[in-house]
Design goal:
137 residues, Rossmann fold, 4 helices, 7 strands
Length: 137
Amino acid sequence: MQKDYTLQSINSIAQEVWNSYSHKKIWIFDAPMGAGKTTFIKELCQNILQSKDIISSPTFSIINEYESPLAGKIFHMDWYRLKDEEEAINAGVEEVLYSGNLCLVEWPERAAALLPENILHLKIEILDQELRRISIK
């Protein structure tokens, strides 16, 4: 699946991705800084999965936890500040990844060796100031 979207159409794209891939428990977001990883996750969690929690980037906390009436517990992780797999393990990442809950991971390359095999890989590309392309593997 590959789709182009803007902020105005992000809701329909997030809904389409959820409808197609809700069975996948670990979603990794591969995108450069400023591409909209957190924006997409916020749209998914608040407007599609109906979480009442405040959805924000866990850059400093590494892991944020949200509740959803549709998906149950959601773990939103940002691995940007992690130096290596050992630091990720110490932060509790491995336990969360294997919890059976939905995990949304930004900057997965920082501790890629910890990721299980059955993941959903979402790549977001910046096409221009307004337009993004999401590709899913």
